[in-house]
Amino acid sequence: MDRELSKQFKRLNKIEKKMLNEKESKLFKAKIAPVLDEIQEKIPHKLRATLAAAFLKSFQLVFDKGNAYVEKTYNKDKIKLEHDLNNDAINQKINKKYIKRLDKQVSHAKMLNYSISILEGGVLGFFGIGLPDIPLFISVVMRTIYEIAMGYGYEYKNEEEKAYILLIICGALTQGDVKKEFNERIDKLGNRIDRQLKAEIELEDQMKETGHILSDAMLTAKFIQGIPFIGVVGGVTNFNIIKKIGKYASLKYKKRYLLKKTREKLIKELLNE
Fold it and tell me: Global pTM?
């Protein structure tokens, strides 16, 4: 393997391992976790179901009709041009300089979306979450992931890529063995897409699963903050959730991109033999 690719993978694998094996602090386990478990048991099932259904409808709305709206909020052509220039340079010679430029563009997009999430979240009202505003929140989530995907050269409009995005959201917001399971599913799907192999996709089921995970993460975060009924807290919660998603999405898309470069380099070497 190319030396620079090897360095990049070593670094990414270290970050991924840390994410997948992130342990709760002793204080959290001893003091907070028991209280949190008790609170979660008291959250009405109807509230969880209502919120999960709202997220499902929002995913359907964004995927069916909302992409055009989301794309108006950033410069798609500029992101694509920047990626193409750096990718062409990397195709000539795998170079830390141009990989870093890809990362820089993605990091800039993430920081902007984190700021938007705070402003957007501050106006949410119902338990800090306004049901009519959930499509807006999902739009910010999708914008974050779309810009990361494009930064590493990936589209997001076909069913396979939509499912990949939904799995990333699930992986970002879960922990322990569940997170590891999602991580494995993400890698398998990404590999099948990039090798142009048929992937079994049930998009509706994946949207439902992601809606449940998002609603649980949102409700749990509100209660952890201790002031769930104050709407302005929504900004903090949304920031934390979108930051988790952005960080994890960057890892998975960059790793996927580098795996593609590894395959391309290998094929090129075989053809030149």
Answer: 0.87
pLDDT, tens digit (0-9, with 9 covering 90-100), for 79-99: 999 999 999 999 998 889 999
Closest CA to 15 of 262, 265, 249, 261: 249
On the CB side of 254, CA atoms within 13 Å amount to 25
| Residue 66: CB atoms within 10 Å | 17
Model confidence pLDDT, tens digit, residues 195-220: 999 998 999 999 999 999 998 887 76
Q: What is the dihedral of CA 99, 116, 224, 163, to 10 degrees?
A: -60
Q: Which two tokens stand for residue 172?
A: 């970002």
Question: Residues 146, 148, 151, 153: what is their CA dihedral angle, to the nearest 10 degrees?
Answer: -60
CA dihedral 83, 87, 88, 91 (to 10 degrees): -170
Q: Compute the distance between CA of residue 128 and CA of residue 4 in angstroms, rounded to an integer.
A: 46
Confidence grade of residue 35 (pLDDT, cut at 50, 70, 90): low
Indicate the length of the chain as a whole number. 273
> 32-49: b or e for each residue (b if 16 or more CB lie within 10 Å)?
eeeeeeeeeeebeeeeee
- Residue extents of the structural domains in the chain: 3-8+45-272
